[in-house]
Design a protein that fits this description.
The chain is α/β, with parallel strands linked by helices. It contains 24 helices and 22 strands. Helix 13 packs across helix 14 and helix 18 packs across helix 22. It is globular and about 75 Å long. 53% of the residues are buried. The N terminus is likely disordered. The structure holds beta-D-glucopyranose (BGC). The site of beta-D-glucopyranose has 7 residues, from loops.
């Protein structure tokens, strides 16, 4: 061996070794201060009123300003947190009251719903989950954190982690869909994006896992409604995204509006204390959802305001959002011995702990100059566009109708959502501004050749029954080579308090599509919406359907990227699409029945009036190319309880274009949900290229915990036959 070389290797090793031994640079939260001791010292100084003040969060005005009463409450130490107060100037002004004029100088924590972007709006979370690419969610939440932080916001009420199996529930739009595995992957990614490894960093904010728990299972898809389920379903389906968030270090959790098995989630000791604190060792704080403490009376659990405060506090809620019952009744409850000093102190401790971890005491203010240049920048927009590109799902593409040529002679762009600036931003649009939105019409105009004539007609609204605009829409379709019709939902039809009993297109939208289609011109339908819709006629009659969801600030550019082939769509549905609302709930990982549906046997599990299969199964999505998967191999036929199993498959792009594919692996087994997506993997494939893909069942330990919980099986055997059927590009219908 060449001695000089070996010395160099040794030297390099030595350097690496020294680097490893050298103390890591102190991160913001690892500052050499003993947080618990500082909290002890603060607790000793605080009056009961000041303690209760830290448990109080109050709402600001919709435009980001604070309310007239806030400064005085803060000055007296009676208000620890606000929501909706934002903007560097507003937050600084209020923070100065806390830091300069209050006795103990405890900073205010400014919260805001930064759900899918602050000012640069990203695709709705359901759309982002359609990318099946958690890294995309980590990027978008990182940017959202940076923009929010630059605007004085230190805490977001996100990620929303509710598994949703019912598209009637408008809040399905805010989550990652119906699957616990995908939901957990996105939960981890979003917490990492918002918080990083240290949320006192200057571009990070505190995240909040919500809504704890089972809010997505609200009966009938009706918002704020009751939920009832077995502990098994809770643990297997509804808990995993929250567990993933806690494991990723989420600093706060929000207790939900719903009641769970008869006990409201905001006064539920089982979920708030036994599971969250006891089993999962969560050491952050719990904030109630908006007035959900007061609502304990409506639930019928609390006799009155004082009782509601007692029930929420003793169950494990630390901070009360908007209602003021902890504040109004804390002292009396203590006097009467109905709550202990230790309960109050512990709630204060948890909140102060997070305020310390946030670095709020050292850096309470926001740079007012930065906010003017750091929002909705070109680079943030570029990321929003790239994520929207990946979020779109091609639902139908007969005779390769898509992609369209950029050199078409003429295109008719039609529909109520074709040039609408608001709907792509979704319901929770942070501080997003409609004027920043690239609409589909603008995106298409920017994409096609200068010689292409692009005509536009709105045709109708998303609501009402006026068909006055149909004639113009039909006329421009007749005059064009192709018609692209944009229909779906407007922003106020999704999100909170947006439950629906029908998933059909609203207003005269379907009739508009029919009228344009009747011209005989190729009619492409692009859906802009926040939940699965029942669009049977469109899927059966038009040649191409693209699910664009509510794609955010850059939606129009991304839609044009896909329509004209600059991007090959690779999104997959994170939620099942029913044929009819009557099939709901319809989801892929349902339990087996003793009588699986059979067309020729009446006495099997199905409907008389609609096929049992969904319109589109979970995991479905087409591409402009085709992939072939062969040669599935398992590393073992049988594994022990602690064993690991690797599955591999050969994937080949056998089509004409390069493209990305999400390869999905499903497993099934007795006593488990019928199918279970356990591994997802995405790779880019050049045309004609093949590669070997390995899945490692990294969730194995979780699965075994669950099996132990069921006390059903001591070890687990994977059935090769079942697994063989279950690798592909979608779930089995
Ligand atoms: C919603 C929460 C939200 C809160 C604050 C509630 O109505 O359920 O998701 O974070 O309001 O805006």
């Amino acid at each position: 061996m060449n001695p000089t070389k070996s010395i160099r290797v040794l030297l390099i090793l030595a350097v690496v070794f020294t680097l490893l031994l050298a103390p890591a640079p102190l991160s913001h939260s690892q500052r050499p201060r003993n947080v618990e001791r500082e909290i002890d010292s603060l607790l000793r100084k605080m009056t009961l009123e000041e303690k209760l003040g830290q448990l109080q969060q109050l709402d600001g005005e919709g435009n980001g300003t604070f309310r007239p009463e806030h400064p005085d409450l803060i000055r007296k130490g009676l208000l620890g947190s606000t929501l909706n107060v934002r903007g560097a100037k507003n937050t600084n002004q209020l923070q100065h009251v806390a830091m300069d004029e209050s006795r103990l100088k405890i900073p205010v924590l400014f919260g805001f719903d930064v759900i899918h972007g602050y000012r640069t709006i990203f695709p709705i979370p359901l759309a982002e989950a359609s990318s099946w690419d958690p890294a995309s969610a980590e990027r978008s939440t990182s940017i959202a954190a940076q923009e929010a932080r630059d605007s004085g916001v230190r805490w977001t009420f996100a990620p929303m982690l509710d598994i949703a199996r019912d598209p009637r529930w408008g809040r399905i739009t805010e989550g990652a869909g119906e699957d616990p595995f995908l939901g957990a992957a996105f939960a981890r990614a979003r917490v990492r994006g918002f918080q990083g490894t240290d949320y006192s960093a200057p571009d990070k904010i505190l995240a909040c896992a919500k809504h704890w728990v089972a809010y997505g299972a609200t009966e009938g898809g009706r918002d704020y409604n009751t939920t009832d389920m077995s502990e098994n379903t809770l643990r297997e389906i509804y808990f995993p995204p929250f567990k993933a968030a806690v494991d990723a270090g989420v600093g706060s959790v929000m207790s939900a509006f719903n009641d769970l098995n008869g006990v409201p989630a905001s006064a539920n000791p089982f979920t708030l204390t036994k599971v969250l604190r006891g089993e999962w060792k969560f050491d952050g704080f719990v904030v109630s959802d908006y007035t959900s403490v007061k609502e304990l009376i409506n639930h019928g659990l609390a006799a009155d305001d004082q009782d509601a405060a007692r029930l929420a506090l003793t169950a494990g809620v630390d901070m009360e959002m908007v209602s003021r019952l902890f504040n109004q009744h804390g002292s009396q409850l203590l006097k009467e011995g109905k709550i202990s000093q230790a309960t109050i102190d512990e709630a204060v401790r948890r909140i102060l702990r997070i305020k310390f971890r946030l670095g709020l005491f050292e850096h309470p203010y926001t740079d007012e100059a930065r906010e003017k240049t750091s929002l909705v920048t070109a680079s943030n927009r570029a990321v929003a566009r790239a994520i929207a590109d990946r979020s779109m799902v091609l639902l139908k593409n007969e005779h390769e109708s898509l992609p369209l040529s950029k050199a078409l002679h003429s295109i008719a762009v039609i529909g109520p959502l074709a040039d609408d600036h608001r709907s792509p931003l979704g319901w929770w649009s942070g501080d997003g501004k409609p004027e920043d939105t690239v609409t589909p019409l603008t995106g298409i105009r920017a994409k096609v050749s200068p010689a292409t004539k692009v005509s536009y007609a709105k045709g109708c609204d998303t609501q009402g029954d006026s068909t006055e605009g149909f004639a113009e829409a039909v006329a421009i379709a007749r005059d064009s080579d192709v018609a692209i019709v944009f229909v779906g939902e407007s922003a106020e039809m999704v999100g909170e308090a947006a439950s629906k009993s029908s998933l059909d297109l609203t207003g005269p939208q379907l009739d508009l599509v029919k009228a344009v289609h009747a011209t005989g011109k190729p009619t492409i339908v692009v859906l802009i919406n926040g939940r699965p819709l029942t669009v049977g006629w469109i899927v059966e009659n038009t040649p191409a359907v693209l699910e664009a969801w509510m794609g955010g600030t850059e939606a129009g550019n991304a839609i044009a990227d896909v329509l004209f082939g600059d991007v090959n769509p690779s999104g997959k549905l994170p939620v099942t699409w029913p044929r009819s609302v009557g099939q709901v709930p319809l989801y892929y990982n349902h339990m087996n029945t003793g009588r699986p549906p059979e067309a020729t046997n009446r006495y099997t599990s199905k409907y008389l009036d609609v096929p049992w299969t969904p319109r589109f199964p979970f995991g479905y999505g087409l591409s402009y190319t085709q992939f072939k998967m062969t040669n599935l191999q398992l590393s073992a036929q049988r594994i022990s309880a602690t064993g690991r199993l690797t599955a591999s498959v050969e994937v080949e792009n056998v089509g004409k274009r390069s493209g990305d594919e999400v390869v999905q692996l499903y497993t099934s087994g007795y006593l488990k949900q019928a199918q279970d997506s356990r591994a997802i993997s995405e790779y880019a494939y050049k045309r004609g290229a093949a590669s070997l893909l390995d899945f490692l069942d990294s969730e194995r330990s979780y699965r075994l915990v669950q099996l132990a919980y069921r006390q059903a099986l001591a070890s687990y055997m994977t059935s090769l036959e079942q697994l063989k059927e279950a690798v592909g590009t979608r779930s089995l219908p």
